[in-house]
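Entry:
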Amino acid sequence: MKFIKNRYLLFGIILLALLSTLVSFNLFFRESANERQIAAIEDRLRQSEDRLDIRISQIEDRLDRFETRFKPIEEGLDRFETRFKPIEDRLDTLDAELARQ
């Protein structure tokens, strides 16, 4: 009878050891899968950042071209305002005189 109890006890211990080993492997593989998922997410994030940097540089280039294209127009408007400021002032003076009469 003692031999049978010891055999069941030994069988139970071996079964428990196998079960704990399986649980350990499951946790290990699950952790590895999580690490792979995290690495994939980080990779996609880096790719998104790279695409965003490219898009920002394209927008900056367009803005530079826009500023370069319209700089002469802005300078021409400044010259126009400077040139016709005395005429505008004179018209304002004449309007004021007409309003008084």
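The mean pLDDT is 86.
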